[in-house]
Amino acid sequence: YPLQSIPDYYMLDQLLSEEHKLIRSSVRDWVESFVIPQIDQAAQEHRDIPGLMQELGKIGALGPYIPEEYGGAGLDQIAYGIIMQELERGDSAVRSAASVQSSLVMFPIFKYGSKEQKEKFLPGLAQGELIGAFGLTEPNHGSDPSSMETTIRKTADGYTLNGAKMWITNAPLCHLAVVWAKDEEGKVRGVIVERGMEGFSTPETHNKWSLRASKTGELVFENVRIPSENILPGVEGLKGPLSCLNSARYGISWGVIGAAIDCYCTAVQYTKERQQFGKPIASFQLQQKKLAEFLTEITKAQLLCLQLGNLKNTETATPAQISMAKRNNVKMAIEIARESRQMLGGMGIMGDFPMMRHAANLESVITYEGTHDIHLLITGLDITGINAFS
Ligand code: TGC
Ligand code: FAD
Predict the structure, then answer these.
(1) Cβ(389) to ligand 1 under 6 A?
(2) How far apart are CA 244 and CA 249, in angstroms?
(3) What is the C-alpha to C-alpha distance for residues 141 and 253, in angstroms, rounded to an integer?
(4) How far is the CA of 146 from the centre of ligand 1 (A)?
């Protein structure tokens, strides 16, 4: 489909700066030239895209809102969101790579790290020369990270880390991982674990039917000796990892609009060209209903993100507002992916079209960064003041 057909039904461009539009067009061009030509094959072959992180670094997609002194681009939150949207129009795996690196690795090091940690890691992460991972989820504790079993214990000359993390994006590729573990007092601490530390391994998780162009794996710690300088000094407690999730969930809210746009634009073009019963299938009311609902939902999601971005820019967005946007927008995108796939008939299951890949990817997106149901319960808690989790 022509890029001019990407919808802006409510003329939201009027609310964007020239810089936002410039960033969007450069990331869009990069996705067209670098991601789209190879993404289907990478996903079919269940392998990552070679050199992806360095490429993301070159286009400024890693840590866009981290200040320039640490290698970031010093952009605002709306620019970050726009970048995520454009990347996920290509594939959720590409957005995942950028969101983990930006929100879950660079953000905690920038926000809670020492000056030395920032200087040591942030510039390499921003360039994509270093690949980071984020370890919160464990085999026995996903939605309930406060019950984590991974431990960090003080020793004579530093710390020892024991335990395991599961479902970790980029674990098999990472040079470092920001890992969350409990100390002797049961307080959650952030630890930077580096590749090569004895007792640290990262086995890959094979045979996924979702996010196939992204590497997922475990982080296993067997008496890993951690020097004191690798502990994040600026935060204690579950609010450390959960504050990183605020940033990543916000980015996902924007990102999935990109996946929905890719499905919508493909469906518009296909249904106008494909003829059945002597007419384009776009001329049938049932198909028009679907297209009209897709555009309505995409437009509503865009509005939600834009205002959430304004709130993020003034640091007034609440975690519950972010949960609402993540939950609403991922549901919107997964429904558009599934419905639009049907509109292509048999062709919809083929790799020549993006729907099946987006629909499968979005099964992970609706699960990670807090499941669909957990975000509903966060909203329920915000409304009632009553915690229904436990
Ligand atoms: P709770 O008692 O509510 O809170 C504990 C402490 O944390 C604070 N807090 C937050 N702080 C910042 N941001 C938030 N969103 C926060 N939510 C809570 C809270 O104020 C409290 O602070 P303090 O100072 O009083 O101690 O915690 P809880 O144990 O009841 O859990 C609440 C719940 C269920 C909402 C939370 O655990 C949760 O969000 N669970 C979902 C887990 C999750 O999202 N995991 C994601 C793993 S990372 C991932 O999926 C990456 S995929 C990336 C990719 O590939 O793109
Ligand atoms: P569970 O917590 O076991 O939940 C199973 C079901 O029970 C869900 O439907 C859930 O909604 C429901 N449920 C749980 N508790 C309640 C409740 N109180 N009330 C009602 N229903 C409930 N994690 C990381 O730390 N870092 C990463 O980089 C990362 N990347 C990921 C990449 C992929 C591809 C995937 C699939 C996951 C990734 N995750 C990562 C893990 C992800 O965050 C977890 O899978 C997610 O938080 C859910 O945890 P779980 O899988 O253990 O499911």
Answers:
(1) yes
(2) 9
(3) 24
(4) 8
